[in-house]
Structure formats: structure tokens, C-alpha cells
């Protein structure tokens, strides 16, 4: 229905949650100027070094589990819809309450639309 250039999915390419969040904030602001769909990739990207350490400690444990709470806290504070997030992706969503967080964001949109006069 929409060409790929109308659904940008910028990739932070970082292992650090604070850099990821800074990147997500910046790209959301840029998206607001474009007025398009936007995929918010709340995903950390392992480096070769991270993968090597992950072989010893487990990549999921080493990279994801210790950083996921920070990322999910950021997701919970977002405003959905126009001017905010509209598509969010994350790894290992089964480790968190990701689905309910996204549903709550969608419910915000529903309640806003019900309050508007028709």
C-alpha cells in the first residue's frame, strides 16, 4: 500500500542503550518533519566483540536482558500516533511486557479519538 521510502526504519547500530535512546529521539523528531510512517527499532546491535563475549555469557544475557528494562522504560513513555511512535520493533519481547506496553499506547490513541467531536 505504501512505498518503502514512506516507512523509514533507521537503525541505531549500537550496543549502548543510552545511545540507542538518543538515536530514537533524534529520528522521531526527523520523522515529524516528514510526516510519514516510522519504524522505531528499539534494538541493540551486537558488535564482533559483543558476539564473542556473548559466546561465553550468552548474547541474550550479556546484551539484551541487562539493557531491555531501560529500552522498555523509554517505550512506555512514548506518545503514540501523529508526532510520536507508530511502529515499534524490539528483540526478545517475550522477556518483557512488550505486547501490553504497545496495547496501552494504542489505547491512548483510542481514548483520544473517542474524546474528539465527530
TrEMBL record:
This is PI-PLC X domain-containing protein 2. It comes from Ilyodon furcidens. The gene is PLCXD2_1.
Amino acid at each position: 500500500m505504501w512505498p518503502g521510502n514512506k516507512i523509514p526504519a533507521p537503525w541505531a547500530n549500537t550496543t549502548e542503550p543510552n545511545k540507542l535512546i538518543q538515536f530514537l529521539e533524534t529520528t522521531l523528531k526527523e520523522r515529524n518533519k516528514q510526516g510519514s510512517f516510522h519504524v522505531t527499532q528499539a534494538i541493540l546491535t551486537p558488535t564482533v566483540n559483543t558476539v564473542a563475549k556473548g559466546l561465553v555469557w550468552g548474547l541474550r544475557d550479556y546484551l539484551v536482558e541487562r539493557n531491555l528494562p531501560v529500552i522498555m522504560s523509554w517505550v512506555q513513555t512514548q506518545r503514540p500516533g501523529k508526532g510520536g511512535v507508530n511502529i515499534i520493533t524490539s528483540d526478545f519481547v517475550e522477556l518483557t511486557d512488550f505486547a501490553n506496553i504497545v496495547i496501552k499506547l494504542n489505547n491512548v490513541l483510542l481514548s483520544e479519538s473517542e474524546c474528539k467531536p465527530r
